[in-house]
From TrEMBL:
Protein name per Swiss-Prot or TrEMBL: Sigma-54-dependent transcriptional regulator
Domain Sigma-54 factor interaction: 190-416
Native source species: Conchiformibius kuhniae
Domain Response regulatory: start-end pairs: 9-123
Pfam families cross-referenced by the UniProt entry: AAA_lid_14, HTH_8, Response_reg, Sigma54_activat
Residues modified to 4-aspartylphosphate: 58
Pro residues: compositionally biased ranges: 137-149
PANTHER family: RESPONSE REGULATOR PROTEIN PILR, TRANSCRIPTIONAL REGULATORY PROTEIN
Record Gene3D superfamilies: 1.10.8.60, 3.40.50.2300, Homeodomain-like, P-loop containing nucleotide triphosphate hydrolases
Top-rank taxon, per record: Bacteria
GO terms classed as biological process: phosphorelay signal transduction system; regulation of DNA-templated transcription
Keywords for this protein: ATP-binding, Nucleotide-binding, Phosphoprotein, Transcription, Transcription regulation
Region annotated Disordered, chain positions: 130-158
Length: 508
């Protein structure tokens, strides 16, 4: 049974229904009772009428600021711990809230791990409040408040860092059961038993029960799309469409019509009405893959559609309501792109209400062997493929910059090359340890964010460029439904050049 010393409800104050729902669900799973308020006035009224164990309040709400809620609690003599939720990068607000009596703050986007840590420190604050005065430690001076916690560092120390007695939190039974095999079957797309992948699956299950926008980060080939599909398949929207859009593959001049659709006759070539991605995804999930590649102009339009929950087709005077859950992903560092100015901050917050990280395969080392056996069986089961010890060793020591996708490709290629169905090390065509020209071993560079999968001293330039070109050509062909003339146009090359490139790279 879950034990905690928060025996009264937690009050969540936020004007956004999605966030209230997510927090309520998460806190309830921790065994806490939850009450909600959608603005400052309602929060104050509820605080006057009821007793709460903890208050979590957003800062910016249409009818006032979270600071007013903090003041109401401290000035009203309530001894309820209150924490504020601030916008990313808004350290001033956080410090101000701490000065007037908040015990901690969270930065958007909130991660579940952060929420858990915060509730644990609230238990500590309550314990301190309930101790005789003489025993209470002095509160930390506000000027020493730690820098704002970043979403990627949920384990950052809480404001009250001294070790005091905390009742132990035990995860509810459903979470513990998630480690059992039975629960693995609900997410068949995502294999692996390592702690990181278990954590990803656990979050996927939770997020599937909410409507909040989810942002999935992770390297190329680490399973971001599989995670997005799993969220959809486990959600109430499972019988409605899942529309995956590769934002990087749509030419800029076609973006608006692709996302929002058009009316017949609205421009040359619009010879019939057409629905956009939003309307196709109505009732279901719209997965914006490679969302970092959206041009700024399109980011504005997308933000508007997501906020208003309406779209207007090109050439149409009418706006149409759409009910779409947004899941987005990119292998790029979206927060860095916001800093750089190439991704809008407001859209970033809107997409990144909760983030999910898919671990790279090299961090799932304990799973590798089973995955290799599984993939060989799955794809080539009937052929009785075997592997030499050297090949097995090379596979287990390789670091897979292209993650699962690369592992699948390596195995597929190896099976094709293997003599007598025995895969040997050269059939893998990998170099498990990059070696310098002088023959010394060199340490693999961190994967380059701008050049995913490229490793200095390891990747051959021509192979890398061919791979990029192959992906672009394939995306253009998929996009134009294999019309080579149109695909050439979309890519801004001549038909001859297209044919030459397809031949050179043996693309059918
Ligand atoms: N945990 C996993 N278990 C099994 N297969 C996986 C897992 N993660 C990824 N894959 C497989 O790897 C391939 C790539 O997965 P996916 O397309 O979801 O990756 P991605 O992160 O979206 O890639 P990109 O960034 O290139 O779009 C797919 O064939 C998928 O089935």
């Amino acid at each position: 049974m879950t034990r905690h010393s928060l025996n009264r409800p937690v009050l969540v104050v936020d004007d956004e229904a999605d966030i209230r729902d997510l927090m309520e669900m998460t806190l309830m799973k921790m065994g806490l009772d939850v009450d909600t308020a959608e603005g400052v006035a309602i929060a104050k009224k509820k605080l006057d009428e009821n007793k709460y164990s903890l208050v979590l309040t957003d800062m910016r709400m249409p009818d006032g600021s979270g600071l007013e809620v903090v003041e109401h609690i401290t000035e009203g003599g309530h001894d309820t711990p209150v924490a504020v939720i601030t916008a990313f990068g808004n350290a001033d607000q956080a410090v101000q809230a701490l000065k007037i009596g908040a015990f901690d703050y969270l930065q958007k986007p909130i991660t579940l791990a952060q929420l858990r840590t915060l509730v644990k420190s609230a238990v500590r604050v309550q314990d301190e409040n309930n101790r005789p005065l003489a025993a209470a430690p002095a509160p930390p001076p506000v000027a020493d408040a730690p820098p704002p916690r970043q979403a990627a560092a949920p384990s950052a120390p809480p404001v009250f860092s001294e070790q005091s007695r905390i009742d132990v939190f035990v995860e509810p039974a459903a979470d513990a059961a998630a480690h059992g095999l039975k629960h693995e079957y609900d997410i068949p797309r995502i294999l692996g038993k390592s702690q990181q992948i278990e954590e990803a699956r656990r979050l996927i299950r939770k997020l599937a029960q909410t409507q909040v926008p989810v942002y999935i980060s992770g390297e190329s080939g680490s399973g971001k799309e599989q995670a997005a599909r799993s969220i959809h398949e486990l959600s109430e929207r499972r019988d409605k469409p899942f529309i995956a859009v590769n934002c990087g593959a749509i030419p800029e001049n076609l973006m608006e019509s692709e996302f929002f659709g058009y009316k017949k006759g609205s421009f040359t070539g619009a010879d019939q009405d057409r629905l956009g991605f939003f309307q196709h995804a109505h009732g279901g999930t719209l997965f914006l893959d490679e969302v970092a590649d959206l041009p700024l102009a399109m980011q504005v339009k997308l933000l508007r559609a997501i906020q208003e929950k309406t779209v207007r087709r090109i050439g149409d005077a009418q706006e149409v309501k759409v009910d779409v859950r947004i899941v987005s992903a990119t292998h790029k560092n979206l927060a860095a792109l916001v800093q750089e100015g190439s991704f809008r901050q407001d859209l970033f917050y809107r997409l990144n209400v909760v983030s999910l990280h898919m671990p790279p395969l090299r961090e799932m080392h304990e799973d590798l062997e089973q995955l290799i056996v599984y993939l060989l069986k799955k794809h080539h089961g009937g052929q009785g493929v075997k592997m030499t010890a050297a090949a097995r060793d090379a596979l287990l020591h390789y670091n897979y910059p292209g993650n699962f996708r690369e592992l699948e490709n390596i195995l597929e290629r190896a099976v094709a090359l293997a003599a007598n169905n025995v895969i040997d090390v050269e059939d893998l065509q990998i170099h498990s340890e990059p070696v310098s020209l002088a023959g010394e071993h060199i340490i693999a560079e961190e994967p380059n964010a701008a050049l995913p999968g490229f490793q200095m001293g390891h990747t051959q330039l021509q192979d890398y460029l061919d791979d990029v070109e192959r992906q672009i050509l394939q995306q253009a062909l998929t996009y134009t439904r294999y019309n080579r003339t149109q695909a050439a146009k979309v890519l801004g090359i001549s038909f001859r050049s297209m044919r030459y490139r397809l031949d050179r790279l043996s693309i059918e």
